[in-house]
Every structure is written in structure tokens, then in C-alpha cells.
């Protein structure tokens, strides 16, 4: 191995798109269609998604990126005085440069457990809000944002998600599930949520394409009728309506016509489990116990210095004077031989 | 005492205005002046404030209310991606219904010590921001908001404020001090900041009128040149430019021409100290050790049930099954005999 | 007359408040009440307004100023992609420093006729919007804003207002009437709208206090149920919830308990008609034919140079090389002798 | 010809990407790179653009779409009270669903001449603003937005653009040129602006990719130092920072490495001139005299009914009872034989 040719494990968007997707983009390239998502490819992709997730009544829209999808959904859902509840670690709270606040809304970060929050926390927060005599002086909680899998790679079980959805319904809150890495969650061996149940336990969710093997793209699936109205106006306003919307339709059709989305999820998760096993065997402490493609471990800095000569990873935080938490990602594009190389390299560290 | 005539200690804005202020409003009532703060009364009030706080180069503006002043200052100071750092308990973070977020900016609440934050906390936060490789994905800290006195009645010492101001200057942050109750802070026996030093240790601060004996009104004093430009445009946009601006000028002139502001601060703080002494003597536990007009104590619920028959207080939070934290406020308008009545009443509780 | 003691006709907010209002503020000054508009004075004022305007089902809120009231109502009413239709001359379009845009909404200015727009114009605009294939790329018209009287002093007749309200209902638009000078409109000899009919032909309207003899204050009357929810949250967020809300209640109670509002409207309108008659007699060309307290005329610059030595007026625009359009206002505070003085002065100009 | 296989002339984004671009996307597909525009392809594309436009000191960023680019640039440039001046027909004024207002800024539409505005208009507007005594009550003009070519296909000459840039500099306004179809403008036979001069006469401009043969993408070129700071923060906040930023770099590198951008511009403009000549020969009245790829003509409705059986066009507006204005676009993808077919078809109309 030569250091100048590092193998990338720092994230899951280091390559272009899966070959099946590229093939279809090439085939359809010179076909003329209408713009702005009103083409036959988008229509077919919408149908495929609604079949897959069992949500025939849903509206499905295609947007380019995750921050864009999050801010558009939330801007469409909330009135000016309303706020979003999420985990402190929620992507909208920490890694979107205040995109939600720029739309006028406070993001309320609750303490998290490995990236997740609970129905009990939500219930307590909302009750406390309305019990406060001065609640009109405080932003009104109206939407709960969770990620599946979470930003730390963990997943909500069927029981946990059911409880959250029920508490949202009880309090009149919308439940928005960010599925930027949804495929890696649904494909996880630990996942007990089938696609249809998952959809039925949400008001709106996204299906991430970028990190799952598309060039780019997130599908927004809107189940709750109150969230459907005029969504395309708001997409356009936020710069989220792609002129050549067909590109999104073509890619999502590729994902859901022949189960590619699930196959790619399985691919990445299996490789991640190999890596996890090796890390545990090496004696590294898990930072989070993740069943998906993102693996967070605590490593000696000395080992990291060696590893980073040949591999990239994402630095998370310092743990103590000689240890750091880091993240290794597999993805749809990860080559099994590269994982083997990494595992061998780690094993060989003294 | 009849229960239907409760004596109010729940806040410091239960009455109209101090008699000297009302007298001057009456005297000047039918004089014709220009509108929007461009009248001779406002000019004189600006001069008086600049003399009092030794800030001859400052711009001084008069606004109606505290939330209005906070959101106008912050909207004027920040670019879209920039955020405010404050204590978790900061008024802008918890009691302005997301006014700052509605202007597009994230409010970053740091853990507090009796309502205060430290220069070290600010320094650590800003350093961590710029050390993060992905800092462009995170809102950029640009302004520090503190309150003097804090929302819990405590005050920053000269040393603490100096350290905060220096760290702000080091990192290119603006320091904004919310003085909604400034008079009660500057008048406190524990205060070691004279008015001129206080002003010199800030980029912009407010001088609260509403809670200090005016019908309404907050003066915004802008020391930092970069914050001065076009401030009146933004006032107008935010609905914060009073047509009959003279009313603000007249009131602030009354405050600062004959030291009324300080006299009223002394009045309230002295009464608060009597009450504090009595509460401590009674054996009540302080919730916060406040040297100003707001006194936070933990009382048995049984006592509160008696007290609230004749007096109002503000409920803060439940402490345990039989105790609650509450707030009693004195103010410019509090009658010494009412404090005596309350003290006697508490003494008499079995 | 000495030039340094100019008599002000440039606007209708040059003085403090009417003596009846000041008297009541003085009387009630030291009474203790709850804050934020939840006091008995506000309750009584709400009742008086609902009686006067025959809108028992309405919600009534009190805010400090006109820009504040306009932006709060519109922010509460619209979703992000929705826009306001108004006359090009509408206050929100030209004199609020983009307050509505700062809340995220486009203001669509239609051509005006002496400050008014018509039902036909609104109908045509909305139809054109929905007929456009790309209407999702264009802000969606959702609220119509008109002023009664208009910014040019003219008034909508019962027929005109009925037509506008009906077209709004047909298209699902809210009708918001800005009554910053409502009293001068309702009191006009040309007005054929009684108070109850006026209210019944709107979804939300304001009753201006500042220009009608209050120190400050606008009442927002919300008739449409969809506009009522959580309005106080949004007031607080916009800095529009006065701590000593009682001050607004006391003033509006004064206006509507003994018909003061109408009396003051009559006073100003009658004086304005004297002035108008004199101007016409002098041969000055009306810029607008206004039946209310604002009189817009075209005068020779030479005459204006003389007039401005002793009187103030508002400059509107240059008409030709030797003539300008200007505005003279009377108000609740205008002294009949001052109007006589001005009329004599004009008569005497060679 | 079969009606179900209409040939599309309604816009210039009906296909995917030019074959040279697709080829390069395919070749580079599985190469691993850093994300968010920090990869070698983006670096090379930046260099190529800076060479082409002679702006070595510029910052170059790549965004996905035009509305996104416009709103990000303007949000980054303006303070809350500042407004954009543009032609009434400006894309930001009429076809972005209020994207600029959603960022808080008023868009001031000036009357246009075939889509253009003049330095004189800008000068007059700005002078009038500052001459108005109440200018603080009016949004402050700070940025001029023009499009090259305009939304009506016309172009600014070197003289016209020089005059606009000079007046902007005189008044301290930023000049932002929207180049969504820049290649069709720069390639026009009527254009007298070379690329370097064009760039030198702007503070910031965009280079459109979507309509010029990319799958998507707009380059933002920032010349003015004040507009550079922290632009990436604001991109991220607005959802405009593509995870796989390399896709933008690869496409723009394809455009500017071997002059593809100019070749495609020439292609479309030449075909448009053939069509224009034929339309004029047929006796159709030009709606606008456009020298670029968008051709606006007034046609009899009877002819349009025939044409639309086999071709698509964009409907603009009704002219009279029997005529309508419509737009035909050529593009990088237009096949010469399709233009010939359309011309023959029109010639054959009785």
C-alpha cells in the first residue's frame, strides 16, 4: 500500500453512483421529458416507493440533499412560533449550520442515549410546556425529528418507534423521520421494522439516496394529509426543485424496482459487522454499539497514527490523553477486499 | 387583609410608572414634537445616558420592550450563519418564544452557574468550533449575550465581566449585555462595577425602563462602531420605532437627570434584602443567592398555600414532594409596609 | 407668529394623548395588575370593542404600534410560500422597511386609484396566478391588505368593501384591514359603513390608537377563526406583547366607553374639511380627493416656502418645475384656532 | 410525425447531460474523493473558470441549482433591512416562489425594456431613496440583480453593463449577474463582451450549467472581497452544499477545459437564429428581439393549435383575441433536424 492512495472509510459518500444507477442514467440521457419532477420516471419512482412502503395515500417528492429535505419539510410543517424536538445529536441540531433556525424555528435538543430519544422524554417535555403558566413565552413544540438510523448508527426498535409515534399523536405533534441512511437501518440484522410498518409509524420520512448509492437525492414521503398541501411551492422557494427532476426519478426507480436499495444496505451492513467484530476482537472499546454501517470505536492515538497513513476515518472526539473516538463507515461502494485490508492492518498493530 | 386584595410580589411590572415620570409625561403632553425619536426630549435623554455611562461615542436608541430590543440588536449584529452564545437560562433562550430564531439565528445555551456563564466556557466553545474540521456545518458563534443582573438575580463582578469582554475581543465576538433590570444590578450592595466601567466592558447594552419605573421602554446603547450602522432601519423593520418616540425620551430623561434610576434601584434592592434576611431567618433555603430585587427561595408547599391567599409570587419549579422553588420580587413601586406585612406573615407561619 | 414656534400639520402624532386618556392613566397608575394583557382593564376594553363593532366572537389583542401589528398579523396568517396583495401605496409595501419580507413574505403591490384597489383587480390577479402553469414557481396570494382610510386619506365605500370581501371569500383569501386611522375614516361625512358592518366585512382589522389620541396602541380584532390560534405566542415572538399591557387596555377602554374615539374622529375630520374648503377656494389642485383628516394638495413652491416658515407639512413629491404635492394633517389634538391661522395665512398669500 | 412523440422546444432542460460530460462522470465514478467540494475535480474546475474569466482573485463555489444560487448569494450579501433592485421580469422577482423574501429581503422590480434595466434607472432609484426624509422607513437598496442573457433572451452590451457597474460602485451597491444561460449570451453574435471583461464588470456572477448541458449545477464566482467571507457556511445552511461536490467539479471541468461551454452556446444560438429567421419570414411579430437561444414571438392561436400537436413551446401571455406570445427554446441538445422539421411545419401552415 502506498500512503498517497488511502482507502476511504471516513464517510459513505466518497464515490459516484452504483453501476446500475449510472447505467440507467446513461440509457435515458437524451430522452426528452418535462422538468421539475413531472416526468414519467418520477411518476414510476413514486409508485415504486408507495408500493415498497405500503403508503398508497402518501405524496412523494424528490429533493437533492438531506439538509435541503430537512429544512423544506420543517418549513412546510410549522407556524412561526413552533419548534422541533430532537436528540441533542440530531443532524438538524448540530450539522446543518442552523438551517432550521434560518427558517425561523427553534430546535430543542433533548439528552440522547446513543443518538436516540424516548417517548417518555417527549411526553415530559410537552407536558412541562403546557403546564408552564408562561408557555406563550416559550416556543411551542409541534414536530419531533428522529433519524433512522441515528447519527450514531443506532436504530429505533419497533416498540420504541411505536411509543414515540403514539405520544406524538396524543400531543398533536408531527413525527418526521430522517432516513438519510435509511437503507442501512432497514437492512440491519438488528432491525425489527419492516418497510410498511416503518412508514405507518411516521407522518413524514425521507429515504436517503446520496449515502446509499445515488449520485444524490432524497425522497420525501408525506403520510400526514396536513403536511401535503402546497409542498411543491415550498420546495421551489427553498431551491429544492430540481429542473431536471427526472434524474431523481431515474435513480429512485433504480433503487426500488429490483430491490437494489435493500441489496446495497445489506452489503454495507455486512461489511460493517466484519469490521466491528475485528475491532472488538482487537480489544477496542465501542463508543456506540451500532448495528449499521457506521462504526464508532475508541482507539489508542498511537494506533490511529498508524491507521491514518493508509486509511481515512472521521474524528469524533478526544476521550482521554491517549485515546480518541473515531468513526469508520462502510457503504454501498465499499469493496470487501478493502475491509479485509483494514482488518488485517489493525490486527497487525502491535 | 382580604384575599381578594392580594399584594403582588410575582414580578416587577405590576404598576404604571413612578410619579416623577408620570408628572413629566403630563406636563409635556400637549407639546408638539417630531416623531420617531427625533425630538428634543430624546436628544436630551441620549446626552444624559452618555454622560452617566461615560460613553460619549455611543449611539443611543429607545425601544418599547425587552424582547423587541434583544431581537433588534441581534438581528442587526449577525449574518445569517452566525449564532448567539448565552446561558441556558438566558431570557432570549427561554422566554422570548424563539424571537431570535425567528430572525434566523441559533441560540447556543451554555450550562450556567446561578444564571451566569464564564469567560472560560466561551473560550472553550469558540475554540472547539474552529478546531472542528466540519465547522462550516455548524453555526458560527459571533455574539455573547449575558444579562446584568441575570434572570436569577445574580450579578457579574468586575473581574468576571472583564474576563468575558476580553475573551470576546480575542475571538472577534460581540458582547451584548441585557440590562432589563440594570438598575437593580448597579444598585446592589454586592456590585463592584461603576456605570462607566460597566459600559466600557460591553459592545452594546440595554438599560431597562419597564421594570425600573417607566411605563415602558428600553434604551439600547451601542458602543461598538460596527453595530451602529443603519440601526434605525432595523428598528423600523422590527416594529420597534415608536411614532411618539418622545414618550421614551421623556421617561429616560426623568431617570437620568436627577439620579432617579439609581434611587429606584436602591429602593427595591433594600426591600429585597429585608425580605431575604427574613426568609433566611425563617430557615428557608435559598434557590439562588441573589443580591438584587429578585429573591428565589425554596419553600414548603404548605407555607406557599398560606402565602398565596394574600400575596402573589412566581412559581419556578418543583424541588421535591413537599417543596417548591418560587420567586418574590420587589420593585421601584414596592411599599415598605407591604414588605413588612409579608415578613410578618411568614414569621407567623407555624 | 414666530417662526421658531411652527404649528405642526405634518402628521397626526405630534402630541401625547387626549386629556381623558391621560386622566385615566394617572388615576390607575399605582393599581397592581397582572401583566401581558391579562388584566381587568384589557378585559373591559375587549368587551367594549366587541360591543362597538358587533363582533362578540372575535379575539381582541392590544399591540403597541402599527408596523408591529401588521407584521404580527401577517406572520400569524401565512405559510412560507404565501404572499400579501395590497395597493402599491400600501403602508406595508412602502413604509415599514420591509417588515413583511423580513417575516418571509412577498408583498404584491397592485396599481391603485387614490390609494384604493378593487375586487376586480384582486380577482384578476388570483385567477391569473392559478391559470399559470408554473404557479408553483410564484408566491401564492393568500391575504389581501387594505387600509381604511387609505394612506392617501380616501375611504372604501360599503359597496367597494363588500365586493372585496366577497372576492376574498370566493378565492380563500384573508381580508386584513389596517385601521391605523380608522376613526378618521368611520367619522368621515362620506363614510357609509357603520362600525358593525365594517367589522363584518373583514377577517381581521386593526383599530389605531396612536394617531387617534392614545399615547400608543393598536387593537387587533380577529374575526376569522383560523387566524385566532396561538396569536399570543406570535405577539410575544415579535416583541409585541407589552409587559404593562394594562396601559393599552386603559387607553382603549377610554376610547370606547364613552364614544371618545368617534368624537375625536369627528373633530379632526371637521377641521380637515375647513382646510380643504379653503385650499380649494384658494385654487389649489387636490392631489387626492380625501374626505378624512389627511389633505393632499398641489401647491406652488413659492407658497410652500412661505408656509413652511410658520407651519410644518409633509412633502410628498415634485409635480412640475414649480409645484409640489404636500400633505396637511389635522388630528384629535388640532386646535381650531390653529386651522384658522393656517387658513388665514394661505388666504393672504398673494 | 406522431403527435405522441412531440419534439420539445418549451425549455432548455429537457434532456440529461452532454455526452462529453456523461463520459467523464462515468470514467470517474468509482474514484474516491473528499466531499463537499473539497476534491481535486472541484479545484481544477475552479482554476479553469478563473483562467477563462480572468479572475484569479475570485472565489468559485459550485451549487446545484439557480434558485439555490440566487438565494444563497443574496442571503450572504445583505443585512436584514437591505433590498435587491432588479427588472420586474427578473427571475428572483417572478419565478422563485419568493425565495429572496423568504430570506428576509424585499425585491424591488423596476420597469424593464425587453428584460433589461439601465444605469439611469438604478441611479434615480437610489437617489430618490436617500433624498426621502423617511428613508429609514423604506428598505435600503444594496444589491442590483441582472441576468445575462435576460429572462427574455436579450443581452446587455458592454456599454450598458459598464454603466450599470459604475453606478453600482458609485452608490456602494453590489452587482450580481445571474448567468443561468450565460453561455447562450456570451456565444451570441450580438454579444460584444469577452469573458474577462464580463467578469470584471461584476461583483458576483453565476455560470449556469443546467441549461447549458450539465445534469445540473451553477458556478458562483465571487469577485468582491466583502462577499467572500464565510460563503460556505451559508451554502451549507441553505442546503446548497452537495455531499458529492465532485459531480459539480467534474461537469464544470468538462465545460471549461476544452471550450465545451462556448461550443454548446454557439450550437444553440445558431439554431435559434435559423428559427428566428423562419419566423420573421413567415410574418410572425417578434415579442422580443432576442439574439440568443430563447425566441419569443406572437403567433395566431390557430397556428399554435397546429404546432402544439407535434411540438411543445412555452406559453407566455395572451396578446389579443386571436394571438398569443409564446417561447421556443433551442439548447445544447437541440438536433438541427428537429429545427428543420419545425421550420418546415411552420412554413407549411396555410
UniProtKB/TrEMBL annotation, chains A, B, C, D:
Supply the InterPro entries for this chain: ArAA_b-elim_lyase/Thr_aldolase, PyrdxlP-dep_Trfase, PyrdxlP-dep_Trfase_major, PyrdxlP-dep_Trfase_small
Cytoplasm: present as a keyword of the record? no
Pfam families, A to Z? Beta_elim_lyase (PF01212)
- Kindly list any coiled-coil regions of this protein: none
Question: Where would I find the Aromatic amino acid beta-eliminating lyase/threonine aldolase domain in this sequence?
Answer: 20-282
- Is this entry keyworded Transferase? yes
Keywords from the UniProt entry = Aminotransferase, Pyridoxal phosphate, Transferase
**An annotated Gene Ontology molecular function:** transaminase activity
Q: Which cofactor does it need?
A: pyridoxal 5'-phosphate
Which PANTHER family has this protein been placed in? Answer: L-THREONINE ALDOLASE-RELATED, LOW SPECIFICITY L-THREONINE ALDOLASE
Provide the family line.
Belongs to the threonine aldolase family.
Q: What is this protein called?
A: Aminotransferase class I/II-fold pyridoxal phosphate-dependent enzyme
Amino acid at each position: 500500500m502506498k500512503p498517497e492512495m488511502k482507502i476511504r472509510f471516513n464517510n459513505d459518500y466518497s464515490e459516484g453512483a452504483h453501476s446500475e444507477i449510472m447505467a440507467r442514467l446513461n440509457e435515458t440521457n437524451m430522452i426528452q421529458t418535462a422538468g421539475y419532477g413531472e416526468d414519467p420516471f418520477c411518476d414510476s419512482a413514486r409508485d415504486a416507493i408507495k408500493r415498497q412502503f405500503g403508503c398508497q395515500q402518501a405524496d412523494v417528492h424528490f429533493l437533492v440533499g438531506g439538509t435541503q429535505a430537512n429544512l423544506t419539510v420543517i418549513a412546510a410543517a410549522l407556524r412561526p412560533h413552533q419548534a422541533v424536538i430532537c436528540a441533542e445529536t440530531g443532524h438538524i441540531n448540530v450539522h446543518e449550520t442552523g438551517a432550521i433556525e434560518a427558517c425561523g424555528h427553534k430546535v430543542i435538543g433533548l439528552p440522547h442515549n446513543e443518538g436516540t430519544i424516548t417517548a417518555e422524554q417527549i411526553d415530559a417535555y410537552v407536558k412541562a410546556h403546557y403546564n408552564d403558566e408562561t408557555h406563550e413565552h416559550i416556543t411551542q413544540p409541534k414536530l419531533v425529528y428522529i433519524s433512522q438510523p441515528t447519527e450514531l448508527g443506532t436504530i429505533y426498535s419497533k416498540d420504541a418507534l411505536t411509543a414515540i409515534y403514539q405520544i406524538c399523536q396524543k400531543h398533536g405533534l408531527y413525527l418526521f423521520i430522517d432516513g438519510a441512511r435509511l437503507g442501512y437501518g432497514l437492512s440491519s440484522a438488528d432491525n425489527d421494522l419492516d418497510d410498511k410498518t416503518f412508514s405507518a409509524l411516521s407522518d413524514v420520512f425521507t429515504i436517503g439516496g446520496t449515502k446509499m448509492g445515488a449520485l444524490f437525492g432524497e425522497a420525501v414521503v408525506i403520510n400526514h394529509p396536513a403536511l401535503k398541501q402546497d409542498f411543491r411551492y415550498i420546495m421551489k422557494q427553498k431551491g429544492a426543485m430540481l429542473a431536471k427532476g427526472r434524474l431523481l426519478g431515474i435513480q429512485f426507480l433504480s433503487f426500488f424496482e429490483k430491490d437494489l436499495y435493500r441489496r446495497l444496505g445489506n452489503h454495507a451492513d455486512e461489511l460493517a459487522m466484519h469490521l466491528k467484530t475485528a475491532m472488538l476482537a482487537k480489544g477496542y472499546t465501542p463508543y456506540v454499539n451500532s448495528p449499521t454501517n457506521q462504526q464508532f470505536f475508541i482507539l489508542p492515538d498511537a494506533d490511529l497514527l498508524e491507521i491514518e497513513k493508509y486509511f481515512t476515518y472521521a474524528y469524533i472526539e478526544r476521550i482521554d490523553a491517549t485515546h480518541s473516538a473515531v468513526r469508520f463507515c462502510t457503504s454501498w461502494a465499499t469493496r470487501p477486499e478493502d475491509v479485509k485490508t483494514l482488518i488485517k492492518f489493525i490486527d497487525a498493530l502491535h
